[in-house]
Amino acid sequence: MQGGVPHRREAGLATAEPDGHRAHVSGARLHRRYLTREPREMSEKRRTIAFLMDYVGGDYQSEVRFGIERAAEAHDVNLVIAFGETLALPGEGGAAQNSVYQLIGPETVDGIIVASATLCHHIGIEGMREFFRAYAPLPVFSIGMAIDGIPSLIVNNGLGIDLSVGHMIDVHGRRNIAYVGGPANNEEAKARADAYWGVLAARGLPLDERLFAVGAFTIDSGRVAIRDILDRGVEVDAVVAANDKMALGVIELLAERGLRVPQDILVSGFDDAFIARFSKPSLTTVRQPMKRLGAQAMDTMMRMLDGEVVEDMALLDVELTCRESCGCRVQASASLSPSASTPRDGPSLVAARRESLETALRRSVAIPTGSLDGWPGELLSALEDELAGRENRFRHALEALLDAAGRAGAILDHFQGVIDVLRERLGRPPSGGGGVALYDALERLWHVSRMVISSASMRVEGERRLTVELAATYLSWSARSFSTCLSLPSLKRVLASELPVLGISRAAVSLYDDAPEAQRGVMRSLFLMEDGREVDPPAASFPARRLAPDGFLGGRERTTMIALPVAFGDEEKFGVAVFSSGAHELIYDALRLQIGSATKAAALHREMVRQVEARERLEQERVRQESVVAARIQTTLVPERLSVAGLSLCAVMKPAAEVGGDYYDVLATADGGWLGIGDVAGHGLAAGLVMLMIQSMVSALTRRDPRASPARVISAINAALYENVRGRLMRDEHATLLLLRYERSGRVTFAGAHDDILVCRAKTRRCVCIPSSGVWIGTLPSINELTRDAEFVLEDGDVLVLYSDGVTEARDAHHEQFGLERLCTTIEAVQTESVVVIRDRILKEVEGWCPSPDDDITIVVARYRAPRQP
């Protein structure tokens, strides 16, 4: 490209056209035909199309899905979007998450569109061919991967890389161009990699394999790939990546190595993802029409269902968008050279160029197929009205266009190119007379228009950010609720309360029937929601391939639904969830994980409850066996390593003959850590079960929010424990629980009810008793008003001692308790010794006092060391 004029390629032929900093590629269509089944009768019910992809979120996935959804609306067909991660190889992990794909069939849908480029990373083209074959005789369509015998739609990946690498060579004079490719089994990645080598060969540059590395289409893999290339010692002056995320990873790693982009190394990507426009520097990239991919795929599927012949494969245009990362910058409008032959008069100025202007305007902005047809003509008519004296007509038309384009998914910043085209084509008239006045009026109009576009773009991005922040907030709240679901009834209550808040009005969560003969081919509805309200699900089971109870997917109104697997890990599949669309994309994948985890927790909890109830019916021998199980639970949950910054720690737990429910835990955090100690009333497996519940919830809640209020954590645990123990187990176990949130500065915030906290001060060598003021957990449905945070501060050398009542209430032969005073005396006697010596001395004194204790003994000792001053 010379003199700011990019090379334009069309069907493989290079042409030149003054089109700003965008190089376009027009797709060549292959003409082999694909004949489908006969068209449906007009009287049949509304069609349903399935769209399969790995995730609903992601730059590529979101854009393609948007195009699919809009086209489904235009064709008045139902849409089922099923996602369940990338397809796994046979025998490898991932089958549970992939299970939703196996349930899509003629029982539910009339045709299937597959985002093959998102599913193929592990199985390659042969695996995808087998994947499609399983859906016969349904019409199928592939996006992003050309598969023999399957109608396919792809972008011209090779020419996109040709443009990107060629731009680095021809415009910027770079010769040592590194390439970060995509997964080896991804056909798009292969095409892009082949194009990279082809461009170098065509221009006579050496084919140096040291400049080539493979990533996984993620930011982290881009970092790793460019790090490997740089570590090979090869000279690099430009990097081309096979997608934008890897390009951003490249930029991050280069910055860490002290290499500036674009001053030292140029970088470009592929896709034109949302983040590419707002990275620093903004990313040069190959823009593929992702929304159009989705829209055209749906259009073609409808033609197939109507019995039309369709192309076996079609290519779509791509274009190179140059930004800061390659050294190019979008030039201000002042850099455009206006024509010297522009007429002076107003409306005729537009009329004389109307046809060419409409063509140029249409090409300057990517708008999904079928959206806003005729907008260039309407905008030019408004400009003619403005020049004829109708003030603000153009601004109002532009504002309306931006509003509609935003709803259609267009990138509003691209409308700056509309103003560039108008200013360039209408240009500066000869000096003097009315021509100068007209030019000045146009310049003011262009200036106002740019401000209108900038304002609209900022507003859209602000709304997008607000939507993401709200989704993240709602997910944070819902995660807390899901984390304490230990039964299917509690899961149903959480779904009923949380789904409407998350923006989901219709939902069907169904689990595989427990009957062995069902062989996972039959489901039963667990939860059903209509119009934001829970409704009673049908009692009858239904074939799993219907995804939801009869009538849920086929109503009078057109619907778009999201189907996802209810699974845990790679192997355990429980069922399917189907939700209405419209919520933020982050929410659906989070729900997939949360519901799967909650269902797994409920299954584990249900199994444990079953075991508890069975054991309670056994005779004394069974009770003894229960004690063995309880002891195993109690001892295996003891933390293996006690490591918290600033604390020397040691602990001991000695179960009694009749195992109780003592509990302690130490959880390190970035700013300090959490210490917990408690005691479940009673003995045996039930006490161990309650202790297990407490430990699990403490771990989950404190890991999620390391700086949480101890009082709030205890209140949440109490609510779940009360419901589980009293409401479901029909038992009355309760517990003391004390939680301490320690900060590296020595500040300790605590809440709960347990034995007094002992702090032996280094300065006085005397013990200070700090009482806890809470209430037992599990006795009341809510203790929010009775639980408050309190604080104390550890100083350098102070010793903190936590203990169970098995220490202070140990009785000698005369039934005298060991007592708190004797415990303090024991600690003070060895205060300067190591924490191990202090712990062992306490244990020795207690065991000497009571050789056969009837309660568990738990001791936690910590010595605080203040941070060294610099």
TrEMBL record:
<keyword id="KW-0804">Transcription</keyword>
<protein>
    <recommendedName>
        <fullName>PPM-type phosphatase domain-containing protein</fullName>
    </recommendedName>
</protein>
<feature type="domain" description="PPM-type phosphatase">
    <location>
        <begin position="644"/>
        <end position="864"/>
    </location>
</feature>
<dbReference type="InterPro" id="IPR001932">
    <property type="entry name" value="PPM-type_phosphatase-like_dom"/>
</dbReference>
<dbReference type="InterPro" id="IPR036457">
    <property type="entry name" value="PPM-type-like_dom_sf"/>
</dbReference>
<dbReference type="InterPro" id="IPR028082">
    <property type="entry name" value="Peripla_BP_I"/>
</dbReference>
<dbReference type="InterPro" id="IPR046335">
    <property type="entry name" value="LacI/GalR-like_sensor"/>
</dbReference>
<keyword id="KW-0238">DNA-binding</keyword>
<feature type="region of interest" description="Disordered">
    <location>
        <begin position="1"/>
        <end position="21"/>
    </location>
</feature>
<dbReference type="Pfam" id="PF13377">
    <property type="entry name" value="Peripla_BP_3"/>
</dbReference>
<keyword id="KW-0805">Transcription regulation</keyword>
<dbReference type="Pfam" id="PF07228">
    <property type="entry name" value="SpoIIE"/>
</dbReference>
<dbReference type="GO" id="GO:0000976">
    <property type="term" value="F:transcription cis-regulatory region binding"/>
</dbReference>
<dbReference type="GO" id="GO:0003700">
    <property type="term" value="F:DNA-binding transcription factor activity"/>
</dbReference>
